[in-house]
Amino acid sequence: MDPADTRAQVDFLVQALGLRPGDRVLDLACGDGRHTLELRRRGIAAVGVDRDPRLLEEARRRAAELGLEGLWLEADLYRLGVLGPSARFTAAFQLFGPFGKQGDASWDLALLQGVAGLLEEGGRYVFDCVNRDWMLAHFDPWGRWQAGETLCQEERRLDRRRGWLFTRTRRVWPDGRCEEWEDRVRLYRPEDLGPLLRRAGLSLQGLWGDFDFRPAGPSSLRLLAVAARWTGG
Ligand SMILES: C[S@@+](CC[C@H](N)C(=O)[O-])C[C@H]1O[C@@H](n2cnc3c(N)ncnc32)[C@H](O)[C@@H]1O
To answer: Could you report the per-residue pLDDT of 128-162, keeping only the tens digit for each?
Structure first.
């Protein structure tokens, strides 16, 4: 990932979550910690959570290299209760993570409920998902792009009725090595998100179409939702 993209994404997070130095923030599905580390560099006490110990090890290595303190937790986002009943954070976010990729919609609800349980009153949460309206209008069954030195090819199938996108991706290295995997993601319409968040005890505060704060609309592939823990008032 281009470091300039990471910085722009963190600019978005700081503004959307209203972060100030010292705030305790959870980076859910942090991967190699690129957002956690950029937030730490800005004085925000970000904690990275991921289920993959190899990625967390890479995050630790990068933190040491940058001379930054890092705090990393190995956990499954669908079992956030393991962080303890009294763990509370000012804010949390999940970018390019597993939201929408499991079972039926009850998994997404369970994940959001787990997040709500970790936020202070009024605490904010940012997450992204794929816009169903965009995908139905622009669906292309094939994709091909260069990612660094590798060539990626994607074969896609759309379940229009149920709102699922299925992909088979093949990545090829210049020496001929290749890797193939399958994935699926549930697609969301902008109007689906408010009711889903309310059921989880969160309220939708804003919906954006990209990290530059352009409003979400039919031309947004990705939806960036900003929610707050709802206190019932
Ligand atoms: C595409 S990476 C994104 C990483 C990071 N957010 C970023 O933008 O660089 C997706 C991450 O989600 C993590 N992940 C997927 N399912 C998870 C789960 N159920 N619990 C915790 N982490 C999960 C993977 O291990 C991986 O690090």
So the answer is: 999 999 999 999 999 999 999 999 999 999 999 99
State pLDDT tens for residues 9-21: 999 999 999 999 9
Q: Choose one of 6, 37, 52, 93 to mutate for the ligand 1 pocket test, by most ligand atoms within 8 angstroms of C-beta.
A: 52
As given in the structure block, the two tokens for residue 35 are 């957002």
Q: What global pTM score does this model have?
A: 0.94
| Secondary structure tally for the chain: helices H, strands E | 6, 11
What is the CA(4)–ligand 1 centre distance, in A?
Answer: 20
- The pair of structure tokens assigned to 219 is 């031309």
- SS3 state at 69: coil
| CB of 28 closer than 6 angstroms to any ligand 1 atom | no
| Cβ of 77 less than 6 Å from ligand 1 | yes
Total length of the chain? 233
11/14 Cα distance (integer angstroms) = 5
Task: Please state, in angstroms and rounded to a whole number, the distance separating the CA atoms of residues 216 and 67.
Answer: 38
Residue-range domains of the chain with CATH: 3-131+188-229 (3.40.50.150), 134-186 (2.20.25)
